[in-house]
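for the writeup, i need someone to sanity check this before i put it in the appendix. the sequnce is what the collaborator sent (i think, or maybe the updated version? ugh). structure was predicted straight from it, no edits. if anything looks off just tell me and ill rerun, i have time this weekend
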Amino acid sequence: MMWAAIYPLILGAQALLSPLTRGWPGEATTALVLALVVPVAMLVTVPWLSRLAARAMRAGEARS
C-alpha cells in the first residue's frame, strides 16, 4: 500500500523540481527529492491512505 503513496509523490516532486535541478548530478537530485518526499509521505500521505483503507474494510465487513 505504501507504494501507492510514494510513487505519485516521487513523480510529482521530480516534475516540480526539474527546472530547479537541471544540470545537477543525479545523486543530488535524488537526495533532494527523497528529502522532500519521505517526510510528506510518512506524515501525511501514508496515514491518510491507511485511514481510507481501514474505512473501506469496515464498510466491506458491514455489508457481509
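The two ends are 24 Å apart (CA to CA). The chain has a mean pLDDT of 90.
thx in advance!!
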